[in-house]
TrEMBL record:
Coiled coil: none annotated. It comes from Armatimonas rosea. InterPro entries: Homeodomain-like_sf, HTH-type_TetR-like_transc_reg, HTH_TetR, Tet_transcr_reg_TetR-rel_C_sf. It comes from the Bacteria. The keyword Cell wall biogenesis/degradation does not apply. The keyword Cytoplasm does not apply. One of its GO terms (molecular function) is DNA-binding transcription factor activity. Gene3D superfamilies: Tetracycline Repressor, domain 2. Residues 16-76 form the HTH tetR-type domain. Residues 39-58 bind DNA. Keywords: DNA-binding, Transcription, Transcription regulation. This is AcrR family transcriptional regulator. PANTHER family: HTH-TYPE TRANSCRIPTIONAL REGULATOR BETI, HTH-TYPE TRANSCRIPTIONAL REGULATOR RUTR. Pfam families: TetR_N (PF00440).
């Protein structure tokens, strides 16, 4: 490797480490003070860097939240590709358990962000335009779950299943974030119950009216939880040189 290339790589690596340090500081403060309570100045102080340097990597606190969304979504997409073929129920339960394991280290932060995440018009709103790209990516995770299942019937229900599963996923994450039981045992019980019910559901979906009703529900949810074509995501992982 040339001396110039080595120098460039060292700068990129140093820049990535700085970005990670600032993001980690932000997530800590969000958990401690809430999204509104944390300030860019406080984040810079926690990260032991200048305020100007913090702004070089993240123009706003909202960008920090979206960076967390990005990381979690990419990790979940990787987990989805590792799922072995099997029933829809087993694949769904496996990806949900994997997701909870990924979310667990950030539970305090995510809980603190729920207020902003559910506020209409907030840049960090989970169902808002700012998170649309990552929402589509998560929908793609459930497309992967359905595609690898060996018991999914053909027809309109197959096209709508990812939307139905994604809608249920958001409700499950909300339940988990607020679950007061030790080690979120209620969430584990809910997951086990969901896996059991999903396994039984296919008997009912063999009935035309049941399959049509489920497909209709998916179509109703499609505008908010569906998966339009992914637009290019420019510069989402760009790290400025330091």
């Amino acid at each position: 490797m040339s001396e110039i290339a080595t120098t460039v790589n060292e700068k990129v690596s140093k820049g990535e480490r700085t970005r990670e340090r600032i993001l980690a500081a932000a997530l800590e403060l969000f958990a401690e003070q809430g999204f509104e309570g944390a300030t860019m100045r406080g984040i810079a102080e926690r990260a032991e860097c200048s305020l100007g340097l913090a702004y070089r990597y993240f123009r706003t606190k909202e960008e920090m939240v979206l960076a967390l969304y990005e990381r979690l979504v990419e990790e979940l997409a990787t987990e989805a590709k590792r799922l072995p073929p099997g029933s829809l129920a087993s694949r769904w339960a496996a990806i949900e358990r994997a997701d909870i394991a990924l979310l667990l280290p950030h539970r305090a932060t995510l809980t603190a962000l729920f207020g902003a995440g559910l506020t209409p018009g907030s840049p960090t709103q989970v169902l808002g335009e700012g998170a649309a790209h990552w929402r589509r990516r998560i929908h793609g995770v459930f497309q992967e779950v359905v595609a690898g299942a060996n018991d999914v019937p053909k027809g309109p229900i197959r096209q709508q299943l990812p939307t139905l599963l994604y809608t249920g996923h958001l409700l499950l994450v909300l339940f988990w974030a607020q679950d007061p039981t030790p080690n979120q045992k209620a969430t584990a019980d809910l997951l086990a119950f969901g896996e059991e019910m999903l396994g039984r559901m296919w008997l009912a979906l063999r009935l035309p009216w049941a399959a049509q009703s489920a497909a209709r529900l998916g179509a109703i949810l499609e505008p908010l939880f569906g998966n339009p074509a992914l637009p290019p995501q420019e510069g989402s992982s760009t790290t400025p040189p330091e």
